[in-house]
Amino acid sequence: MPNQIAQDLLRIPSRNGSPVNEYRIHQGQIEFRSLDAQNKPVLHWKEGWRSLGVSDIQLHFALKTVVAEWLIERLGSLRQ
Q1: Structure letter (DSSP) for residue 78
Q2: How many CB atoms lie within 10 A of CB 40?
Q3: pTM of structure
């Protein structure tokens, strides 16, 4: 079950020891990073956060992922 830690941060925990995925909205960009079991950025993602491209975001919406649901909720809260 994903956790919304802050209004602009979504954490999707691991169930089987695989990396934890975090998404955030930062300076108008949707960003992603993976964390290991000790909550440290996964080594192959040396830069830490990376911006999602339009095709990445479209794929989340096409697949109706938790990330897409979170973004829809965030967009709805921005309208109010």
Answers
A1: H
A2: 8
A3: 0.77
